[in-house]
Amino acid sequence: MLKTAGLACMFLGCMLAGLQASARLKERVSLLEELRHVLKILEGELEYAHASLPEAFLKAGESRDPYGLFFSGMAEEMGTYPGKGRSEIFREQTAAVFSGTALKKEDVRILEELGERLGAADVHSQLQMLQLAEERAEFQKEKAQEEYRQKGKMARYLGICMGLFFVVLFF
Fold it and tell me: What distance in Å separates the CA atoms of residue 77 and residue 167, rounded to the nearest whole number?
C-alpha cells in the first residue's frame, strides 16, 4: 500500500514537472505579446499625448505585471533619482523585475537596448526606436510560439513517460 502511494506520488510529480515546463513555454509567448502591447501604449503616449517619458512610463505601468511593475518602477526611479541615467535604471529594473519570469535573456535585452536609446533623441526618433523594439518583440514571440509548438507537447509527454518509467522500474 505504501509502495503504491509512493509510486503514485512519483508519477504525479513527473507529470506535473512536464506540465510546468510546457506552461513556462506558453507563458513566454504571452509575456512577449504583452510586451508588444505595452510598447504600443508607450508609442501612443509619446506620439499623441506628447507625454514625457516618466508620464508615459506611468501610463504603461497600468498594464499587467511584470510590465506594470517594471514601468511604474521606471517612472518612480526617474522621478526619485533624476541624476541617474536611463540605461542604468532600465538595467536595474530589468534585473529586479524579470529575473524570475519565463522571458529569456534575449527577450529582456529588447528592453535594455530600448533603455539605452530612449529619451536621448527627438520624439520621431524615439517612436522609431519603439517600433523597432516592437518588431523585435514580434520576432521573439514568433520564435517562442514555434518553440512552444515543438517543445510544449514533448515536455508534457516526457513528464508522463518519465512517471510511467519510474512506476514500471520500481513496481
Answer: 53
40-66 pLDDT per residue, tens: 999 998 888 888 888 888 888 888 888
Give the pLDDT confidence score for residue 91 in this predicted structure.
Answer: 84
Task: Count Cβ neighbours within 10 Å for each residue of 21-39 and write b for 16 or more, e otherwise.
Answer: bbbebeebbebbebbbebb
What single-letter amino acid sits at 134?
E
Side-chain half-sphere CA neighbours of 125 within 13 A: 6
Cα separation, 71 vs 164, in Å, equals: 45
The residues near 165 (Cβ < 8 Å, ≥ 6 apart) are none
Q: How far apart are CA 43 and CA 135, in angstroms?
A: 13
Long-range contact list for 68-71, CB < 8 A, 24+ apart?
69/97, 70/94, 70/97, 70/98, 70/111, 71/38
Compute how many other C-beta atoms are within 10 angstroms of the C-beta atom of residue 89: 19
Distance between terminal CA atoms of the chain? 12
The 8-class DSSP code of residue 6 comes to H
The pTM of this model reads 0.86
Return the pLDDT at 52.
Answer: 82
